[in-house]
Amino acid sequence: MMDGYSERPIRVLLAKLGMDTHTVGVTIIAHALREAGMEVIFTGLKQTPEMVCAAAVQEDVDVVGISTLSAGHTRSLPKLARLLREAGAEYKLLVAGGVIPEEDKSLLTQAGFAKIFTMGADTREIVSYLQQWWAERQAAEAA
Amino acid sequence: MSDLAADVLAGKVAAGARAIRWLDDRDRRGQQLLRSIYAHTGRAHIVGITGPPGAGKSTLTDMIVAELRRRERRVGVIAIDPSSPFTGGAILGDRVRMARHTLDPGVFIRSIGTRGQAGGLSRSTHDAALVLDAMGYDMVIVETVGVGQDEIDVVNLAHSTIIVGVPGLGDEVQAVKAGLMEAGDLFVVNKADRDGYEATRRQFELMLHLREQSRAGNGWNAPLLRAVANRDEGGAEIVDALANHRAHLETSGGFGARSGRREREQALALLRDAILREIMEKGDEALLEDVEARRIDPYSAAQAMLARWREKERVTA
Fold first, then answer.
1. pLDDT tens digit at each of 143 positions of chain A
2. Which residues of B fall within a CB distance of 8 Å from A9?
3. Residue B131: pLDDT over 80
4. How does DSSP classify residue B234?
5. N or C: which terminus of chain A has fewer CB atoms within 10 Å of its end residue's CB?
6. What does the DSSP assignment read for B74-143?
């Protein structure tokens, strides 16, 4: 391509579930993803799993990233994964980050979350994880 | 007709979203799909919303959607934000202001990045609007990028264009862009509760008066409305004005004429894209680098590329 635009940028939906209003983390990630050439749809605060699912479908995103800093993630995150499956959107990559205790990670992984990023994860790690996943997905589709 | 096309015509959200994605990504399947649903387009009222950054376009759109829903109209929204010219990425945040409609099945909100296109719209906006039209939405609202002076491409796309102003941006900045004053169909001063509202309103009134003087019997008196969108004030008047404008266009034949001109422009745009793709080759990148380094002027470079293509056509004919 002769300009900065890839024909197929990765589309990522970032949302915060639950009642907390801390946006610093998710804002930093949004900017990092944009710097990496991705289109980031931010749905805002106080989202319910139903709202995130509806937005993810309307926006036809590739990745759904949830930021959660308050309790309730053991219910709301699996619920989101279930809603996405029911909507036929299980092919979307589901990731989460924030304050998630170690002991809850396997529950979330089993519920359908591909990766849980620990608090303070380097944005470069997040970017390369997504790019790696995307490259593998493109290769699989081309095959 | 493919299953996806049938699903789009049946109004299925996931299908419409996928179709828009293909068109945005310039995936061939997008155009194929569009061709098969095209006969079902041309019904929706396409409304553009444009204005400087800070005018509150997203909040205004949110308010208009709420009023339309009260009147049981189904509405699609295309919210456009700028893509970075360096990285190609974008933060598409307009949805945040329209969150109350997320779970309403009568509303479809799609965020799109400009992906290198100037003029306030993306290349895919026209086609995305057609998809929403074919899905059965009564109105498709296109909210443009609000950067600077040049977002008037929406005027060619929409049946009705709303120009949004806001108090406090200074005399010269807003209304004096002749193109906007010429082309707008409705004018809204948002954040009307702010200081400077009266002065801003007077500026618009003056410009509109001058516009009426110079128009030869167009028949449409562009209204100047007031709104405080974050308090849901002014939505009913705006929706009424849009309905009046649509009625005016239908009686004057303008509804079809505007759609028609838009489709004509789209055909030419597609042809330009196709010709460029046809003519350009890998080797041309080196030539373009020569142009950037001023080793060759752009006029000669363009001629060289055209001549090379003609030669190739001649040889293979």
1. 334 455 789 999 999 988 778 888 889 999 999 999 999 999 988 889 999 999 999 999 999 999 887 777 889 999 999 999 999 988 899 999 988 888 889 999 999 999 999 877 899 999 999 999 999 998 988 87
2. 88-90, 113, 115
3. yes
4. S
5. C
6. -EEEEEEEPPPTTT--EEE-GGGGGGGGTT-TTEEEEEEE-TT--SSS-TTHHHHHHHHHHHT-SEEEEE
Tokens standing for B239? 């929706």
3-state SS, residue B164? strand
- Between chains, do B111 and A59 touch, taking CB under 8 Å as contact? yes
pTM, to two decimals: 0.91
Q: Would you state the pLDDT for residue A3?
A: 44
Question: What does pLDDT average to over chain A?
Answer: 89
The residue among B188, B159, B154, B194 whose CA lies nearest residue B174 is: B188
Q: How far is CA B249 from CA A2, B137, B246, B253, B254, in A?
A: 42, 19, 5, 6, 4
B303 or B1, greater pLDDT = B303
Taking only the tens place, the pLDDT of each residue in A126-136 is 999 999 999 99
Sheet holding A39-42, edge to edge: A115-118, A93-98, A63-68, A11-16, A39-42, B90-92
Q: Letter for the amino acid at A110?
A: Q
Question: Which chain A residues have a beta carbon less than 8 Å from that of B99?
Answer: 43-44, 47, 51
Tokens matching residue B246: 């649509």
> By the 8 A CB rule, do A17 and A80 touch?
yes
Looking at residue B261, what is its pLDDT?
A: 87
Relative to beta strand B160-165, strand A39-42 is unpaired
Helix (H, G, I), strand (E, B) or coil at A113: coil
Pairwise CB contact (< 8 Å): A58 & B109 = yes
Helices B125-135 and B13-24, packing angle to 10 deg = 160
Rounded to 5, what percent of chain B is helix, strand, coil?
55, 15, 35
Q: Do A9 and B113 touch (CB under 8 A)?
A: yes
B194-198, long-range: CB < 8 A, 24+ apart: B194/B166, B194/B167, B194/B168, B195/B167, B195/B168, B196/B167, B196/B168, B197/B167, B197/B226
Nearest CB among B25, B103, B110 relative to A54 is that of B103
Q: Can you tell me the ipTM of this complex?
A: 0.92
Q: By the 8 A CB rule, do A37 and B115 touch?
A: no
Per-residue pLDDT tens over the stretch B91-105: 999 999 999 999 999
Determine whether the interchain pair B89/A43 forms a contact, defined as Cβ–Cβ distance below 8 Å.
no
